[in-house]
Specification:
single chain; 471 residues; alpha/beta; Jelly Rolls; Rossmann fold
């Protein structure tokens, strides 16, 4: 078998040929070129076209391509026939693989981003049409390959030298000169928070990892419609929303309520809308507060929401907005600890000063360390089959806040301070304006384990935190 034939048989990942029913009669014919519900059977739920392009070709032998863009497209023929060909320019094992076939009105082809597209018309008056799910951008990655590159082995029906090729396409490079399309960029929002900092460390230290950007609220205000509308969302394959309003007590005030709903509910809804329009996957970080359960036992993802207080209610509203789009992921966590101000830092400071703090002993859960949660986020980013809600906390024994505090104090045995237990009710009575906290923060980890991710034991994270190996 010749190399060209092997290339023809090679499958380009994500390239999907879809047969269409053409209803013909004496007047002509009719077809449904794009039907979202029907196309979902072919795995195209994530395709949300924003633009329709039409190419009219008067004579046979018009040859266009190869062109690759950072968006998905659905190509079809409205009149006539073309010989269509594709070459994968994405980084990885499939780089350089090709595929070709005759296209007429009875078939349409989904072409994933980074796969170069070309066609040669075979009849007069050929109308070639394609839907795309993003607009052209100055910051986008675009590429082209010469249609006559011998390494591709494309069997054009009409000789290339006799075809009509644009001046620009005549100077396209050979495949060996084309840099591969990189994996879609990752955008981290909330870059200055505990998880945001951990994600930045993880992405920067990951060999061969996806390129990323990390933005703080000062750089992109998620509650500002003008900034959200002007942002180049199409540049990203995955957006991680680690931004949140977390001042639980302050959220109960008039000003805090407005801020909590803007950041925790309105912003995720805007991000979910952007995900629908531009095709990126949204990974949204949430909290066990949305359940609001006091009884014991591991809470499952399918358990009903019952948020107590403004913070919890605003987070639940944001979760529901994100989940309205099927491809998104919500990671709910609890007792997050990382670089910056957190419970461990506070207890360590008190232990070193010899203080004897009162700490609640009837709120149960498992600490989650930011580095481990960042690892889970990147795992979800690399597994597009994951969607919906997943719990991610530290693994290991269930403890109370008082238990964690005593573990911190045990690191300073020479200090006279000790931890005094107090109930949630007693603690709240001494703190004016304190919002309700769930007594049960124990989240079941079964679903995330079934997805192939193994959370670390929180005790290992605790030791790494204080040894300086983690944060």
């Amino acid at each position: 078998m010749a190399p060209a034939e092997k290339r023809a048989d090679a499958r380009i990942p994500g390239l999907v040929e879809i047969p269409l029913t053409v209803h013909a009669d004496s007047r002509g014919w009719f077809k449904e070129n794009w039907h979202r519900e029907k196309m979902s059977r072919f795995g195209l739920d994530h395709f949300h076209p924003v633009q329709n392009n039409v190419s009219f070709n008067a004579e046979p032998g018009a040859l266009r391509g190869f062109h690759a863009e950072p968006w998905n497209k659905l190509v079809s023929v409205a009149s006539g026939r073309v010989f269509a060909a594709w070459v994968d320019l994405r980084e990885g094992e499939s780089f350089g693989q090709t595929h070709w076939r005759i296209l007429d009105p009875s078939v349409t082809v989904f072409v994933p981003w980074g796969v170069a597209n070309a066609f040669q018309t075979l009849e007069k008056g050929t109308v070639y049409s394609y839907l795309v799910d993003d607009h052209w951008s100055e910051t986008g990655q675009y590429a082209s390959v010469h249609v006559a590159d011998p390494s591709l082995g494309i069997p054009w029906p009409l000789p290339v030298e006799e075809s009509v090729v644009s001046e620009k396409d005549q100077h396209n490079p050979l495949l060996q000169e084309v840099p591969p399309f990189q994996p879609g960029r990752i955008l981290v929002l909330g870059a200055d928070g505990q998880l945001g900092r951990a994600l930045r460390r993880a992405l920067a230290g990951e060999p061969g990892g996806a390129p990323f950007d990390a933005l703080t609220r000062a750089e992109l205000d998620l509650t500002n419609p003008a900034q959200m509308g002007a942002f180049p969302w199409g540049d990203y394959a995955v957006v991680v929303n680690a931004a949140a309003y977390t001042r639980v007590d302050e959220a109960e005030t008039a000003k805090g309520r407005e801020g909590a709903w803007a950041v925790n509910a309105q912003a995720p809804a805007s991000l979910a809308q952007a995900a629908r329009l531009h095709g990126f996957r949204l990974i949204h970080i949430s909290t066990e507060y949305v359940y609001g359960r006091d009884e014991g036992g591991g809470i499952r993802e399918s358990d009903p929401l019952s948020p107590q207080g403004v913070y919890a209610q605003s987070k639940a509203a944001g979760d529901l907005a994100v989940l309205a789009s099927g491809r998104n992921v919500v990671l709910r966590t609890s007792w997050l600890m990382g670089e910056g101000k957190n419970f461990l830092e506070t207890m360590s400071r008190l232990a070193q000063s010899g203080a004897s703090p009162t700490v609640v002993s009837d709120q149960l859960g498992r600490p989650t360390f930011a580095d481990d949660l960042a690892r889970a986020v990147l795992y979800a980013a690399g597994h597009p089959e994951m969607e919906g809600v997943y719990h991610v906390t530290g693994d290991g024994p269930v403890v109370s806040w008082a238990d964690v505090a005593r573990r911190v104090f045990a690191r300073s045995p020479d200090c006279p301070g000790r931890v005094r237990d107090v109930s949630s009710e007693e603690y709240a009575s001494g703190a004016a304006g304190a919002a309700a906290r769930p007594k049960n923060s124990v989240l079941s980890l079964d679903r995330i384990r079934e997805a192939g991710f193994r959370p670390e034991d929180w005790r290992d994270g605790f030791d790494a935190y204080f040894s300086g190996q983690g944060a």
